[in-house]
Design a protein that fits this description.
759 residues; alpha+beta; seven-stranded antiparallel β-sheet; 26 strands; globular; zinc ion binding; GTPase activator activity; RAS p21 protein activator 4
């Protein structure tokens, strides 16, 4: 599973600013990033790569943040896969005379040929001699051959090497990897070494291009979390829930205050994310945000600075909007953002930045002037802003209930804290500081980072988005004079901005005073608005039963919908006639080899009918990112399925055999292991209360314990506070003991490993 960033055109100093969270199996070895030069007509060129081994990541628990030199791609280092070997000694009586190496099979070998496969042969070297065997057109070969050699004396110093190569008729053979063994591990005839062994690279070659290919700045962090059963986190979850409960009767929430005081600026955003998701799962997000608002207002004396700092309250509200409001944001901004990308108009208001060459001609016989460009740009921006603000006003009808309630609380608390007439705008600005400045405007400036577009905007479109975001920020500040005094070239937008301010106030008033029924099923609406396991879109599908794959393209276009319990598909988006697969019946969701259909973006869904017969549904995606999103979403939806497959065929059954391993039996169990746990972590992921509780414990346990020691030293004057701290200390200690017990047994039954990577 891998992802591809957006292409940054015509530059040698690109900036991506993209972040990926990937759940990976504990057995991974290396993370590699390849920098490519995209070509429209030919194959993309490889500029260089950066590789980071697992050991380097585990040595830096706080993460890496550094520039790393790109290195050229050495084909002898681009290896992957595993090989299944059995090594034993043969002899007369008790004296070993011969060495036997049985080569059984290999899996997931690198693809070296244009047909999306390889022609692997194995070369076994020992005592200056070698033997070989080849299998054609497979990355999952099965040799099942034995190779025997006369033993060296002394045995301990001898070396056995098993190499895998891709055989080529015309060009040079390609190296696929090797495994080496020192024969000292086998000291008697009764011993044998058998298992799957990771293929390693050849000796690295020093390149003259070292350090001349450029460098890549990365932030990487590997987190290996042991998530205990739910019962271990229940006391911590209950204590956190009590700290925001309605039974406090005016007493300050000591635990939330402790978290607020002990989190550092470096980890505050992460702690806020974990707390928001935990309280969403507990159905207490309203109470949690309400408590944070009270804490923030209690500390604020100057209303102009309210929620302007990166406090826990600000970070939590920002996180809450992204978790609970992303679908709302897409519906609100989608049409306007798409229109700007499709228009591709040159827009500029600043006279110092107007480029007449970019603007083009006004007609056949007249070149545009600077005034023409500014006038047209002003008209376009006013159109975009008016369209967006009208959509915002209408969105009061479909704004998620949780967002409405959060904004209601914020508005009313600020109004109660600053009731003076001169502060009458503060309650509106408190809402707009989150809605416009921390949510809508950042999404306009970087639509890809908010999943509104698949690719970053070009320079022209980026400038239009930036100017629109500035206008929205001005509307959010509810003051046109401040902006226009600093940037007087924004004056032409004043009419649209003034109208937008009026519409924004109207929108907030509708949210705050709407009489939406409190009897609605809040949990149902919350599941629809955030953390839902839903995905939909047009894909090309092909379904097999017992029929063969046709020679022509077997795929047909369908609209596919992933809901809570079903994967359904129909020829039209709103068609009543549709086919479906029940998610509990899905046994595997895996990629398909490129050579099977001539596409690198095909996946397969293997399901079982009530009769026990297996069916395979093939989905062809338009890009590798779309492929990975569907793979990830389906794997998460089926994460609790019983009877999942441990191995599968990455090829197809055609011409009376499997294309991957050439086995003729159609019911053959498979030649490669399934990858159920490899998924992408995305904004629409379902809530995982146990994981969030574990992350809160891990992130705060040291600071909590340090604070508890300080409290003990300086004595606790408040009896209630002492009780809270004592309970917290006991809970943290119990969790530490539970982790120690699990780690001692080395049985990490509940394991969640994920890699945070940002370029």
């Amino acid at each position: 599973l891998f992802s591809v960033t957006a292409t940054i055109w015509k530059t040698l100093s690109p900036f991506w600013g993209e972040e990926y969270n990937v759940h990976v199996p504990p057995s991974f070895h290396t993370v590699s990033l390849h920098v490519m030069d995209e070509d429209s007509l030919s194959r993309d060129d490889v500029i260089g790569k950066v590789s980071i081994r697992k050991e380097a990541l585990t040595a830096k628990p706080q993460g890496l943040d550094c520039w790393m030199n790109l290195t050229e791609i050495d084909p002898d280092e681009e290896v992957q896969g595993e090989i299944h070997l059995q090594i034993s000694l043969l002899g007369d009586g008790k004296v070993p005379r011969r060495l036997r190496c049985r080569v059984l099979e290999a899996r997931d070998l690198a693809k070296k040929d244009r047909n999306g496969a390889s022609d692997p042969f194995v070369r076994v070297r020992y005592n200056g001699k070698s033997q070989e065997s080849v299998v054609k057109k497979s990355c999952y070969p099965r040799w099942n051959e034995s190779f025997e050699f006369e033993l060296d004396d002394p045995l301990a110093d001898s070396l056995l090497t098993v190499e895998v190569w891709d055989w080529d008729l015309v060009s040079k053979n390609d190296f696929l990897g090797k495994v080496s063994f020192t024969m000292g591990v086998l000291t008697s005839l009764a011993q044998q070494e058998e298992g799957w062994f990771h293929l390693g690279p050849d000796e690295p070659k020093h390149s003259q291009d070292e350090g001349t290919l450029g460098s890549l700045r990365l932030q990487l962090r590997l987190r290996d979390e042991t998530v205990l059963p739910s019962s271990h986190y229940k006391p911590l979850t209950e204590l956190l829930s009590q700290s925001v409960g309605t039974h406090l009767n005016g007493n300050w929430p000591d635990l939330i205050m402790l978290i607020d005081e002990t989190t550092t600026s470096e980890n505050r955003q992460e702690v806020a994310n974990n707390l928001v998701k935990l309280f969403l799962g507990q159905g207490l997000i309203k109470e949690f945000l309400d408590m944070l608002f009270k804490l923030e207002l209690e500390k604020t004396t100057e209303p102009n600075t309210l929620f302007r700092s990166n406090s826990l309250a600000s970070k939590s509200m920002e996180s809450f909007l992204k978790v609970a409001g992303m679908q709302y944001l897409h519906r609100l901004l989608g049409p306007t953002i798409n229109r700007i990308f499709e228009d591709k108009k040159y827009v500029e208001l600043d006279p110092n930045k107007v480029e007449l060459k970019e603007a083009g001609c006004a007609g056949l016989h007249r070149v545009q002037t600077e005034a023409d460009v500014i006038q047209q740009s002003s008209a376009l921006l006013q159109s975009y802003l008016s369209e967006l603000m009208a959509a915002l006003l209408q969105s009061a009808l479909y704004c998620p209930l949780l967002l409405c309630q959060a904004f209601q609380q914020l508005y009313r608390q600020v109004q109660a804290r600053f009731p003076e007439p001169e502060y009458r705008k503060v309650k509106f600005i408190a809402v707009t500081s989150f809605l416009c400045l921390r949510f809508i405007s950042p999404a306009i400036m970087s639509p890809k980072l908010f999943h509104l577009r698949e690719k970053h905007a070009d320079a022209r479109t980026s400038r239009t988005l930036l100017l629109l975001a500035k206008a929205v920020q001005t509307v959010g500040n509810l003051d046109t004079l401040v902006c226009c005094s600093k940037e007087p070239w924004m004056v032409p937008l004043q009419p649209a901005i003034q109208q937008g301010i009026s519409q924004l106030k109207d929108f907030i008033t509708r949210l705050v005073f709407c009489q939406e029924s409190e009897d609605l099923d809040l949990q149902t609406r919350m599941s629809l608005r955030c953390g839902s396991m839903e995905k939909e879109g047009f894909l090309f599908l092909h379904k097999t039963k017992d029929k063969c794959i046709p020679m022509t393209s077997p795929f047909k276009k369908y609209y596919v919908t992933l809901s809570k319990d079903l994967l359904s598909y129909s020829r039209a988006q709103h068609s009543k006639k549709s086919s479906f697969i029940s998610l509990p019946k899905i046994r595997a969701v895996e990629k398909v080899e490129e050579k099977c259909f001539g596409s690198a973006n095909v996946m397969q869904i293997i399901s079982s009918e009530d009769s026990g017969q297996q069916e395979t549904l093939y989905l062809d995606c338009k890009s590798v990112n779309e492929l990975n999103q569907w793979l990830s979403a389906l794997r998460k939806a089926c994460s609790h399925n019983a009877n999942t497959m441990s191995c599968y065929h990455p090829g197809i059954y055609k011409a009376e055999r499997w294309s991957c391993c050439h086995q003729k039996e159609k019911t053959d169990p498979g030649c490669d292991k399934t990858r159920h746990g490899v998924t992408l972590q995305e904004w629409y992921d379902p809530l995982d209360p146990d994981l969030e509780a574990q992350l809160i414990y891990r992130k705060n346990s040291l600071t909590f314990l340090s604070r508890l020691i300080l409290e003990a030293v300086f004595s606790v004057t408040c009896e209630k506070k002492a009780d809270v701290l004592t309970s917290l200390f006991r809970i943290l200690q119990d969790l530490r003991d539970a982790h120690a017990a699990v780690e001692a047994k080395e049985r990490l039954k509940y394991r969640n490993v994920f890699l945070e990577l940002q370029t």
